[in-house]
Amino acid sequence: xxxxxxxxxxxxxxxxxxxxxxxxxxxxxxxxxxxxxxxxxxxxxxxxxxxxxxxxxxxxxxxxxxxxxxxxxxxxxxxxxxxxxxxxxxxxxxxxxxxxxxxxxxxxxxxxxxxxxxxxxxxxxxxxxxxxxxxxxxxxxxxxxxxxxxxxxxxxxxxxxxxxxxxxxxxxxxxxxxxxxxxxxxxxxxxxxxxxxxxxxxxxxxxxxxxxxxxxxxxxxxxxxxxxxxxxxxxxxxxxxxxxxxxxxxxxxxxxxxxxxxxxxxxxxxxxxxxxxxxxxxxxxxxxxxxxxxxxxxxxxxxxxxxxxxxxxxxxxxxxxxxxxxxxxxxxxxxxxxxxxxxxxxxxxxxxxxxxxxxxxxxxxxxxxxxxxxxxxxxxxxxxxxxxxxxxxxxxxxxxxxxxxxxxxxxxxxxxxxxxxxx
Length: 423
Known about the structure:
Layout: H1 2-20, H2 23-32, H3 42-45, E1 56-59, H4 63-68, H5 70-79, E2 85-89, H6 92-102, E3 106-110, H7 116-126, E4 130-134, H8 140-148, E5 153-158, H9 162-168, H10 172-180, E6 184-187, H11 190-199, E7 205-206, H12 218-231, E8 236-242, H13 247-257, E9 263-268, H14 274-283, E10 288-290, E11 304-306, H15 313-319, E12 322-325, H16 338-342, E13 347-349, H17 357-366, E14 369-371, H18 375-386, H19 389-405, H20 409-422
Parallel strand pairs: 1-2, 1-4, 2-3, 4-5, 5-6, 6-7, 8-9, 8-12, 9-11, 10-11, 12-13, 13-14
Helix pairs in contact: 1-10, 5-20, 7-8, 12-15, 13-18
């Protein structure tokens, strides 16, 4: 019966791929209307990009995963100097992030789609020493091809929400077969480990969250401090990494409740939405300036600064007094609150944080973060904190202690991976 179930799961998966094939170029063209990177480098998505042989291969699907890989890649390069590095991703923003972080030493390409002949082609050309899949990237054909090519795979910084676990459980035999072919599963937390074991992982090590090991870049902290000095004595509320459906209620709550001296800094998660969010600010009747064209101090009547720049999130955190981390008011799972806490800023999050379940829970327990129910509740708590400097300071100090306490994942994961590279 288990073997029959595996055959059925494979048939369903391959049927889904077959049906999706004609839609892939259409999807790339559609997304390319707003983000031109989707119109480029299609050869790489077919496994034909230029790649080095015998590399340390890391796959990080997009921006968050690419950033999370940074301390692990640094640790592995220190332990194995001279080994070429190959990075794969799926999104143009992930590729841009990779270029900014690793462009000086790594080859960066898109991972081919998970069709058997494409994954075999990619692995035959690259012949990597090892493959590190960041967070939860279980691509059956890729894993199957890597096994047959003798490439050991590692699932690093693995996380699995209840929602994602239910999705993988729809093809239980195929998911189990994938997990059992992975040499090392390094999970962020105990809850992630339990779900991965339940889905069939042979063994899981809890190593912590690599994002705790990302130190705020000094140049970003300096940039944020310089911005803050230019903005004068205005209290600053940051809405970071906001997603579609969140900005409208947040802007309405700000317009209705915030005193004129409070500056709102709004940084959308996705750059292709910068223009859309600018229109939302104008519709809310709020005066605004854009970071991309700002060359000096803000005008006195500016209520909102639109953060339409890339790679400056740490600077925005350094420049604010209170930070809300988006993707959490809408049921989207939330974004990374560790960055804000590591800069020593009070953090507010919404009710939906299942993508960062354990980190959010630990931050709230440490006194570094507060959970709010909706936009009105967020604005009320933010304004209270902006008027209570001692409370802000206590939460900021708690954030620094919280992030410092949970560092060390990169060293632990490197210790698990290095024996595979020496074999």
